[in-house]
Description:
Elements (H helix, E strand, L loop, with lengths): L6 H10 L5 H8 L3 H6 L6 E4 L3 H8 L5 E6 L3 E7 L4 E2 L4 E5 L4 E5 L5 E9 L2 E9 L5 E7 L5 H11 L24 H9 L7 H8 L3 H7 L5 E4 L3 H11 L4 E6 L3 E7 L4 E4 L2 E6 L2 E6 L5 E11 L2 E11 L5 E7 L9 H9 L10
Antiparallel strand pairs: 1-7, 2-3, 2-9, 3-15, 4-5, 5-6, 6-12, 7-8, 8-9, 10-16, 11-12, 11-18, 13-14, 14-15, 16-17, 17-18
Amino acid sequence: MTQALDHAAIIAAQNDNPKMRARDLAAKLGISEGELVAASCGTTAKRIDVDFMRIFPPLEQVGEVMALTRNESTVHEKIGVYDKFIGGKHAAMMLGDKIDMRMFAARWAQGFAVETRDGDNVKRSLQFFDAHGQAVHKVHARAATDIDRWNALVADLATEDQSAGMEVTEAPAPAVRNNVDTAELRDRWNRMTDTHQFVGLLKKLDVDRLPAIRAVGEDLAWQIDNSAVEAMLRLSAKEKLPIMCFVGNHACIQIHSGPVEDIRMMGPWLNIMDPDFHLHLRTDHITELWAVRKPTDNNGVSGHVTSLEAYDADGGLIIQFFGKRIEGQDERPLWREIMESLPRVDGRRAA
């Protein structure tokens, strides 16, 4: 993306639109959100290192914060502590009770500590972007955050280069992989013993996720009416059924595990507003909704898990839901009943 405005013009636009969300203002200006934030480097923003080992172990010490991961259609927010960090050369994990994430270090290009004022209120955040200037993850301080430790972490992470601006590259058009050998797909699918093998299966067959789901057969994947996400959430809330909700982008995946309670529709937005979990989903972005079954092997006993997966007009995965399983056991019967009760596009019930 080519920056069309100089830093002064970007800052002026921010001053003229103090209530506009950064993502929306960046789109209005024709720049990336990363470029918008970077224009204030040296004033309200400070460039910081993106080394996971320098960020996440000490981040636990600041206490309660809000973790935010989003894509074009969904915002996933978890309130808690960044604890139980597990590093890795290519991928890292946060396995805390509240904040559960999968992070891919090579796709985190630049980071900024941002501090802005709204009257007497000071808003503090750590914001991380990919090479295209797209936000991949954010950490927001809260009232319970230890601000002294937060400030010490920011000071430690600050880089020598505090010049304004950010160089970004144009995001490449995604390759389309939709040639499916249905017989081989079904054979490999049915031989899976763990849901985590699914990504490897797609890579081996060189096919995208949605074309594979469309092709595998209705015993393993069936299309659901696009309105059914709300119905699933309300049924799960009514039964106090713990679920898992995955939202991510190419650099970070964030997970909620547990029951949901406070579900609200506001226009096209489906919202969950629970004390430690907030979700904001643009239901009008859902082009296809699928129930998907994948085989598992639980201590030698064959079973399967069922997910509800929403896709956008480009075939991208917007959001994914599972019933929360007890380790080593098959999925909860109540989750399976809910999934099989959701209205199918063809009007039939699941087999």
